[in-house]
């Protein structure tokens, strides 16, 4: 093999696309964030994990209608349940989950969606999901939180649009 | 004295008797840990397939989650750390052709690491530390668990110290010479790890240990997670770089070829030193309390650290190709089949590289914030981890032991064919296991969950849960073949002095690399600077605003 130049040429032929791949992925990331509005959870605020029950909005867990088709769920996670653990909203709704944990780290995940957030004691988590189609959507804890972690779950019932919304407690 | 490119073997063994004993000790512990890890791993896999053996295991193991904690700690933390701490000093002394600077320090590090392991293992086995290997507070384990793991980390710093002292002693004797590539890589790996482990050390010393001892009342989950993931991503490079070292400096010669480019290899490792640490937020994309802007910065650096892995891919594959061509291959692809596949050490490592290609692609997906939201904390991540640490690193380590154990014990490998069967079974089992977990993760199946007992099993999951059990069982069989071969090699195989494999020569050698590449101060400053930029503002804000008001919970 001709050494020197040949080796450098091969190296260069590999290096240039190797730079292009990460750069391309970064561009894709920024486009989806600022073009398609796919955002990660960010800064919301702190709440004392020992005083969750008396700190608004977590003193009143449940569904709140902000406007037609816009809802907020104030949710408290604890071993091994969510409060509320069942929510009813009409199809076409935007539902913002405002949640925290009153003990260990939990997670909140609606499978096969990007509604995926950690519930960290001390931190307020906030994430919005959009429900177009009627049906039952499960959610569950996806961070190990103790012996019965696998039992920690709930569901969102999306009803055909004419039905009025209601929140079930536990 | 042995030289860089070709030790006179018997003499090397004599010159390095103490070093060989230390490496043997590390390897024994590593193998015992791996055995415990794969055994509990089998139980996890079977549980997913609907065969829950845990009720029959009490009182030895109390729950699925205790088993899972043992599996993670033994396989991800103990097997890796002990193997690396034994293997890299072995490479370094051969590369520099001189013994370790301080042999008492070498033994001291080993005994400290072992003491730490024992301290952590007691609460773990007594069901007092069922917190998984990530031990997120405010779940609170017994203090001995945190103290033990901290001692293991401190012991790795002593290994770093010994390697650095050895390098300095060599430097005094060889002024103006290039650092041989293998030694350079060993130093980079341990120095990178030492910088990276400062996060977990701070978490342990300032948060977990005082809190678990009752010296402070409260803790904070987010602060702990930030410190943990400062270490938690670069730790995968600590696992991976020793595999890369083997791929760069041993595998090309095992394949009958030469290393393609020494300069490119040096550049890759320098980039790992600089880029491995300031990217931990990509494990916290889903965490509230960290600004999205800094998460994007970490995503960017995550993509950047993919670059040296792509360089490694090119360099290592080109080196393998030179081996295939040396065996008479001509076409574009035929060199793959001309590789000496009958050598189990090579077979393991080439299969590990092949698997790692998919692990790397999966890693890019995980690092992409938008896609990460679909797979975060799902079985996909478990599939990814088993491709990377579970195969790219572990199958390479196994491949290394196929020559290293015979060298250290002065016996032939007991069975080459058994070793070959083991390698292919591992690759095959992992294909099924990892594919199933990736697919189940895309369907939303959570990770680290006793999933067979969950009330929310979704359509599509059961199929992959069964396959996970089947893949896991094949992996376990492969591991049994491995242990059988290792035990018999150490105890019953024919005694014969085994040659230490020589380091691969380079087609493009060190003389073509600019000498500033070997200047550690430049790269250490770059590393520190980038870490301060990437972590400084968030850490400062957390330090100023965090109130440590979470009490501890025992939830198992």
Please explain how this structure is put together.
The complex is a heterodimer of chains A (170) and B (556). Chain A is α+β, with helices and mostly antiparallel strands. Chain A folds into two domains: 1-38; 49-168, Immunoglobulin-like (Sandwich). Chain A contains one helix and eleven strands, in the order H-E-E-E-E-E-E-E-E-E-E-E. Chain A has one helix at residues 5-34; strands spanning 62-67, 70-78, 81-83, 86-90, 93-101, 106-109, 116-119, 125-131, 135-140, 153-159, 166-168. Chain B has 556 residues and is an all-alpha fold. In chain B, 70% of the residues lie in helices and 1% in strands. The radius of gyration of chain B is 23 Å and the shape is globular. Chain B has a two-stranded parallel ribbon.
Gist?
Chain A has one helix spanning 5-34; strands spanning 62-67, 70-78, 81-83, 86-90, 93-101, 106-109, 116-119, 125-131, 135-140, 153-159, 166-168. The longest helix of chain A has 30 residues, at 5-34.
